[in-house]
């Protein structure tokens, strides 16, 4: 871990869906340049933590800080927005999320997908956004697909387009929720390569993944969740090389 200022600080986070408590007091810090991976069985709460950080979900207790500023949402109903829409926009811009299912706009070209939010949400000049967007497409290796539609791309290419779209917001940090799990193994590697490049660039990232090889390869810190609590965490070499908890050992042997 680096010793620069925290970009994302999650402290004693509690989250329930109705009566079902799914996050039971979790602390995670990502400092500038850190890559933090969240691993654990399905249902352990990994996606929920990212969704809370991105203000897609409210929470009942604890704090989430973005560069020291509290962004915790204590909503009452599913559709109630946090009180300050400008703050929500700023957080979502700064913590840009990449989802498992890419979520590209089917009726827009790849270039238009990447340009959409910077132009319409951030109101940046179109020409400037286009130039940057082409740069991001080049960075993820699909510059030649700028004018294609999502359906004309492989899953790996679509996910790389989704990463270019997240980068186009020029976020402070990237949040990935199982970015490779919808992909065939050979396409998975294209996406892992892009994530590794971003890690090497020193980007701040939180990555939920089932891919232990990627987690070991790109992370500064790995958090193993079990039923809404951190069961064990540490540097990847230690966590994967000498897991202490029985549950983590069981989990790791089940993923091999
Ligand atoms: P993971 O990403 O580790 O698989 P999730 O964060 O998606 O786990 O889910 C954690 C728990 O919360 C699970 O028990 C899941 O069923 C429950 N859950 C997730 N989303 C909702 C929701 N919208 N409503 C009710 N329960 C949910
Ligand atoms: Mg999940």
TrEMBL record:
<dbReference type="GO" id="GO:0015424">
    <property type="term" value="F:ABC-type amino acid transporter activity"/>
</dbReference>
<keyword id="KW-0547">Nucleotide-binding</keyword>
<dbReference type="InterPro" id="IPR027417">
    <property type="entry name" value="P-loop_NTPase"/>
</dbReference>
<dbReference type="InterPro" id="IPR050086">
    <property type="entry name" value="MetN_ABC_transporter-like"/>
</dbReference>
<keyword id="KW-0067">ATP-binding</keyword>
<dbReference type="GO" id="GO:0005886">
    <property type="term" value="C:plasma membrane"/>
</dbReference>
<dbReference type="GO" id="GO:0016887">
    <property type="term" value="F:ATP hydrolysis activity"/>
</dbReference>
<comment type="similarity">
    <text>Belongs to the ABC transporter superfamily.</text>
</comment>
<feature type="domain" description="ABC transporter">
    <location>
        <begin position="8"/>
        <end position="252"/>
    </location>
</feature>
<protein>
    <submittedName>
        <fullName>ATP-binding cassette domain-containing protein</fullName>
    </submittedName>
</protein>
<dbReference type="Pfam" id="PF00005">
    <property type="entry name" value="ABC_tran"/>
</dbReference>
<keyword id="KW-0472">Membrane</keyword>
<keyword id="KW-0813">Transport</keyword>
<dbReference type="InterPro" id="IPR030679">
    <property type="entry name" value="ABC_ATPase_HisP-typ"/>
</dbReference>
<dbReference type="InterPro" id="IPR003439">
    <property type="entry name" value="ABC_transporter-like_ATP-bd"/>
</dbReference>
<dbReference type="GO" id="GO:0005524">
    <property type="term" value="F:ATP binding"/>
</dbReference>
<dbReference type="InterPro" id="IPR017871">
    <property type="entry name" value="ABC_transporter-like_CS"/>
</dbReference>
<dbReference type="InterPro" id="IPR003593">
    <property type="entry name" value="AAA+_ATPase"/>
</dbReference>
<keyword id="KW-1003">Cell membrane</keyword>
């Amino acid at each position: 871990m680096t010793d620069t200022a925290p970009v994302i600080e999650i402290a004693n986070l509690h989250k329930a869906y109705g009566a079902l408590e799914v996050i039971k007091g979790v602390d995670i810090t990502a400092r500038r340049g850190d890559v933090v991976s969240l691993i654990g069985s399905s249902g352990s709460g990994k996606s929920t933590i990212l969704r809370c950080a991105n203000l897609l979900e409210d929470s009942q207790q604890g704090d989430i800080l973005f560069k020291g500023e509290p962004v915790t949402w204590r909503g009452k109903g599913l559709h109630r927005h946090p009180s300050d829409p400008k703050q929500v926009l700023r957080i979502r811009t700064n913590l840009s999320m990449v989802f498992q299912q890419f979520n590209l706009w089917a009726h827009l070209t790849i270039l238009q997908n990447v340009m959409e939010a910077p132009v319409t949400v951030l109101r940046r000049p179109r020409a400037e956004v286009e130039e940057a967007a082409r740069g991001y497409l080049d960075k993820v290796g699909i510059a030649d697909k700028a004018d294609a539609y999502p359906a004309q791309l492989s899953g790996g290419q679509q996910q790389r387009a989704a990463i270019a779209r997240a980068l186009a917001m020029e976020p402070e940090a990237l949040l990935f929720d199982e970015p490779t799990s919808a992909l065939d193994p050979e396409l998975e590697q294209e996406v892992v390569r892009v994530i590794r490049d971003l890690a090497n660039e020193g980007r701040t990232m939180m990555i939920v993944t089932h891919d232990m090889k990627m987690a070991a390869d790109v992370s500064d810190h790995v958090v193993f969740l079990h039923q809404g609590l951190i069961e064990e965490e540490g540097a990847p070499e230690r966590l994967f090389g000498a897991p202490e908890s029985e549950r983590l050992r069981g989990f790791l042997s089940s993923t091999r």
